Amino acid sequence: MSCEEPTTSPTPENNITVVSSDGKEFLLDLKLTEQSETLARLISNFEYDRTDVKKDPVPLGNITSAQMQKIIEWLQHHRYYPKWEQNDIHYSTSFTFETWVEEYLNIPNNEMFELLNAANYLNIPRLFSTICRIMASRITGKSAEQIRTVLNIKTDVKNDVYTGIPIQEDSSSSEDGMSEISLSPSPPPI
Amino acid sequence: MTENSAAILEELRSIREENQESFKKLTEEMEEMKKKQSLQVEMMERIIGKLEKMAVKTESVDLKIMEKWNEFPPEIKMECISRMDFETRLNLRRTARAERSLVDSRLYPMDTVNMCHDGIEVESEKNYFLHETDKCAHNKRTSSCGSKLLSYILKTGIIERLHVYLPKDKVNKWVEELKNSQIDTICVKRLIFQSTSKLLTEFFLNKVNKETLESIQVVCRNDANGILETGEFLESPTVINVRRLLILRQFNTVLVLDLIKRWIKHDVQIGQKLFCHTLYPTTFRNFFTLFGDRVVKSEDNYIRIRTDNESKHILIRSLPCKKHAQSLSCHVIPSEQTIIEKEDDYYTSYDLSHYDETDDDYDDFDLFDELGFFDDDSDEEDSDVEDYGFNDEELDDEEDEELDYVQ
Known about the structure:
heterodimer, A: about 190 residues, mainly alpha, Potassium Channel Kv1.1, Chain A, 3-stranded mixed beta sheet, 7 helices, B: about 400 residues, two-stranded antiparallel ribbon, 15 helices, F-box domain-containing protein (chain B), She-1-like (chain B), coiled coil (chain B), F-box_dom (chain B)
């Protein structure tokens, strides 16, 4: 295994340095960067995989050092995993995760949202997809009203027949009548 | 003494034979019972599976706030939404107009959509959703929500299996509402008619996306006023061109002949198949009358005819069928094909006895009723189309015998 330490040691030939938004440097094994489509493309464009090319530090202005640390942990864990296949993306509604992933993502919601942004920015599809699934799993089984609460959505849709909860009215809402559909089974109370 | 012994011996032999016979009979009965029992177990497991899927959704309610959701760009939200199950997406689209337009901006794969007597089921490997239409039918405001939900599903779903069924009293109203809901096309792979009222069948045959459609199955028994009796069904371009057509009902041979003529006229693609039961079993006499000059080869159980396209032949076979009337399969094959392999499992694996109209004891058995899961307040006349047990997985392979034809 390599990297993870913000380093002052000499840069080995198979590593690149990335710099987080708060100025912290991370030494990254080139093998790990293969999981990030953004970094892989950058390395390919600048030919950083060649030993005779000088590698300048790569600034990652959108990613804090804490997020970078977390991402490197992910990359290292999945170092030997097969390449991510995008197939059946829509079918991945399975909410079963390996224990390591559950522990890894056992973080406050806001941190997870930031991590999702970072995974999107660096284009790490396995991490991105996993966080999306985790987030989907966190609102699964909740009623419309509960989802409003969880996602802090300010509603502009009226007449929630299902929960019976009065909702701020809006004249143009409910255009397709679908908001009136009552579902089965009943959701648990809030 | 010897005579006595011989007589006793003879008697013993006959007793043994009798015993053997009754033992054989008992064994057969046991086998039959076992089969029924395993069917019951299977149905129970399916019910338990559905209940478990429902239970997962109603576990604990964790209301940790994820307020940054609103800061996400739509494309990230969409990625999350596409990983949600149907019911959650439905609930999310009810939260605000922005979420609704996001949810509605994409088509979603659905394994099985089942229009059943009690409502609409959407089922996938991990999730199960049931909308009980009758629950909101009595309410003026929500009386049409069933058809609205159905039209929503048909608009936004990429459906693997769609079971089409409506009770007779709902057909006119629902089809009218479906027509008014501006459904462009219905993306479905396997269209399965559980009932064939004219309006309903016409609607689906007209709206289904021909590109995505792989097969049409008619699995209901003869229902009065069904479109099939008029032959209109087989005249629909959708039916003529569908790759696989399976009709598990007794069918007038003339209609089959008519369909084959249409196949020839429309020069349908190689690989196209039809399976059906015929009203009048036995020979290929009718086929000879109609296609005599086209016949390339014929045997007791198959006939091969040429089409107007030199590269295509049509193979018509009579298939062995356990209890049922004669079954026919028609298959468009390349004319140079000499060896026809065994009949496709797609057809032969169906346990046709399940649809045997004479086997009343078997057909009328409904475990849901037995267990009191659903209150069956349906009309008697509707009950014969409520066979939701139709499922590939429960089919056996008894008929899967090798049928090789060498030309």
